[in-house]
Design a protein that fits this description.
Helix content is about 30%, strand content about 25%. The protein starts with 9 loop residues before the first strand and ends in a 13-residue tail after the last helix.
């Protein structure tokens, strides 16, 4: 049992239910403390650098408050023909995004950062997955956007949800498309002794 006021061993600096689900599925014991970092304060650079910087900023925001903890920060974007697709704010935006992605291959980029201030550890990188959409009919698009699933997802779809019918194939990490490259994250945590078969509550 953790002592009173003792910092959590592992913190997810995100309110994303998808990232929380992925970490739980991996058997990790962690605490969710979302970062309040203002993403709009960051100027857009190259997509790879942009998502990695946002992941670092979110992780460092929480790490400053819990320096003894290991903190995971992440950010995901959808990229097609050098156009970044964020989360649609309306059905019209979702419709436009899905029509743009229909029948095309796009890239999903997730930047992630794992850091521990007390141990002076900081690691970050960007993982890319290629996703091919089926050719969507107008009827399919209208049905999907009226499920309301697209509205908190980059690119207006959820590969792990109803949107699974949209995806014809992927090349790369599936969990990266969901929001966090679990293979790489777990690999790093094992290397640093934060997770593994001998880590008590962090067994998986």
């Amino acid at each position: 049992m953790r002592k009173v006021n003792q910092s959590p061993t592992l913190i997810l600096a995100s309110q994303s239910p998808r990232r929380r689900y992925l970490l739980k599925q991996a058997g990790l014991n962690f605490t969710v403390i979302p970062s309040n970092f203002d993403e709009n304060s960051v100027s857009l650079s190259s997509p790879e650098t942009y998502v990695k910087f946002l992941a670092e900023a979110k992780a460092h925001d929480i790490s400053n408050k819990y320096p003894e903890s290991w903190v995971i920060g992440a950010d995901t974007i959808v990229l097609i023909n050098d156009l970044i697709l964020g989360k649609p704010a309306s059905r019209d935006e979702a419709r436009t995004m899905l029509k743009h992605l229909s029948g095309q291959t796009h890239r999903v980029l997730t930047g992630y950062c794992i850091c521990c201030q007390a141990k002076e550890e900081n690691f970050s990188e960007t993982i890319t997955t290629e996703v091919l959409f089926k050719n969507l009919t107008d009827k399919e698009i209208e049905w999907y956007i009226h499920t309301d699933e697209p509205f908190d997802k980059a690119g207006a779809y959820a590969i792990q949800g109803l949107g699974t019918f949209i995806v014809k194939s992927i090349h790369g990490s599936y969990t990266n498309v969901v929001g966090l490259p679990i293979c790489e994250v777990i690999e790093f945590l094992i290397k640093k002794g934060v997770a593994g078969l001998d880590r008590g509550n962090n067994k998986f």
